[in-house]
Amino acid sequence: MESMSALALSVLLALVSAVAYAAGAIVQERVASTAPARPYAPLRHGGWWAAVALNGLGALLHVGALAYGPLSLVQPLGALTIVFALPMAALFVGRGAGAVAWRGAIMASAGLAGLLSLTGTAGAQSLGGGERPVVAVATFGGVAVVFLVAQRVHRAVVRSILLAAAAGAAFGISSVFTKSVAVDWTASGGLAGPGGSLPSLLAVAGLATAGMLLSQAAYRGAGLAAPLATVTVVNPVVSAAVGITLFGEHFRYGATGTALALGCGVVAAGGLILLTTERLGGHTGTSHGRLPAAGSQVRVPGQRPRTANVTEAVTGTVPQTATPPALR
């Protein structure tokens, strides 16, 4: 009976954690739409700090869920963040999702949940002393490369997906270092000092901060579902990849489990593709989402109306000789 109570508490904490993460994502998206001049850290925006608090609460609840329940149960429940976020956004901020977005979100969540449920464990292990700087440098370097590539992408949705993927990778490796610190703490009865856990704690702080800043920027111009789904999928997939390669973790049921895990990965990837194409379809053309027809009247603030040419009708761009201050 006691074990059942602990399991029920773990499930409850995991579900509330997913709700907190979903609420944090909704607030981040709202902040991104109202404070576009500061895409990474709108420190003077009260909503930004509310999002930070909600994400921090989600993390604490997730850790509490792991303390009372098995990893194989808690991690898949985290995938429900995407499913919770869509109706919450529709209910509280009036941002409904279409059928394609719902299909993509459900596919991504189901694929991720299946993938995580098939991942076994190999006991309490942590990164070795020599592995930690290599993993940290590789992660920061990889995140920086993706960030720089994203800055050169002109399509807002694609740029947001890249930033969300970088954020998910940062969060995932942050979880790996968090696990390593927790194992060290248990083994030594406390922090191991500057030569032990302190560098790992600094890595956790740096990666978590980078993930928060990148995820905030990812919501700019891409809506809620696609960036959130990308972060939610990439985060545990990256940490699971490290667990399999460095911690000796494995997929359950041998070759059959590996094949099922690959299938779940394909389902999750398909969900992300649906969400991305849905956003691309909604952002094609001008800022109002429609291409100008050749011969139609084009109105640009601050300029006299004129006739759109064939090039503008094909590319969906309207050259401007001057940008009004209100649009900069």
UniProtKB/TrEMBL annotation:
Transmembrane segments: 46-68, 80-102, 133-150, 157-177, 197-214, 226-247, 253-275
Organism annotation: Streptomyces enissocaesilis
Signal sequence extent: 1-22
Region named Disordered: 284-328
Taxonomic superkingdom: Bacteria
Keyword Transmembrane part of the UniProt annotation: yes
NCBIfam families attached to this UniProt entry: DMT_1 (NF038012)
Biased composition (Polar residues): 306-328
Name the record gives this protein: DMT family transporter
Alphabetic keyword roster: Membrane, Signal, Transmembrane, Transmembrane helix
Claim: DNA damage is one of the keywords in the record: no
